[in-house]
Design brief:
With 236 residues, the chain is α+β, with helices and mostly antiparallel strands. Helix content is 18%, strand content 34%.
Length: 236
């Protein structure tokens, strides 16, 4: 079991290295233009965000937000206790401190294939039940609020743009191993999701879920490495 942990850690370290090289290559492509009445949620730092769980979030001078998880020797004790799967599957999140109701949200994301991430909206729990070991599968953001899925050929059955567990997205729109754009329209009456400018999912708001809450960015599991840029929001 310990060998399994060490092999896993080496694979993640290799992934971090490749992501770092990719980050350096892509940083020059970040747009710096303002977007009219939209608010830039990244700005020059992460002071208006809060990290939930043990995710590591770094914002480059060029405006790329890199998120990944630490893999340290403390994992060995967890593996020895027979909880490797639970440890590996726990999530981490980055949330806006501010909560929003009706708005248009735009962001670009890069998740290497295979990979999994997501954007939560209206999640008043702020992911507290998703970062535990084991996580509470019935109270993750997708189950108490809404998660807009990001899935780069991962094993999950819900494709990118899906309103997770509620509305499955149209496929064939996302580009693998490239930057993609995600737009989310949040209204009291419902949610509409577009990937690369094409509407892929929409659904009415559920009566038992919140109408307001923060914006959250997901690190789906211990192997997650994700990048975001150009996170803009216009309140309606």
């Amino acid at each position: 079991m310990i060998d399994c942990f060490h092999e896993y850690r080496l694979s993640i370290m290799r992934r971090y290295l490749l992501t770092g090289l990719l980050l350096a290559f892509l940083s020059a492509s970040v747009a710096s233009a303002q977007r009219g009445d939209f608010d830039n949620l990244l700005g020059k730092d992460l002071v208006q965000w809060e990290s939930v769980g043990d995710g590591i979030w770094k914002l480059t001078p060029d405006g790329i937000l890199l998120g990944y998880r630490s893999v340290s020797d403390e994992g060995e004790a967890i593996v020895e206790g027979g909880s490797f799967a639970a440890w590996r599957s726990s999530q981490a999140w980055l949330y806006t401190e501010k909560e929003y109701g009706e708005y248009d949200l735009h962001l670009d994301y890069f998740v290497g294939a295979p990979g999994n991430s997501g954007v939560s909206i209206r999640d008043q729990s702020r992911g507290q039940f998703a970062v535990t070991i084991p996580l509470d599968a019935d109270r993750t953001p997708a189950h108490v609020a809404y998660e807009i899925q990001i899935n780069a050929n991962g094993p999950d059955q819900w494709p990118t743009g899906s309103i997770y567990g509620i509305e499955r997205a149209k496929t064939g729109v996302q580009k693998l191993d490239e930057w993609n754009s995600l737009n989310i329209e949040s209204r009291k009456s419902g949610i509409r999701v577009s990937v690369n400018g094409i509407v892929v999912a929409e659904h009415a708001s559920l009566p038992d879920r919140p109408l307001t809450g923060p914006i959250g960015l997901q690190l789906h599991d211990r192997g997650s490495v994700v990048m975001f840029r150009d996170i803009w929001l216009m309140e309606r």
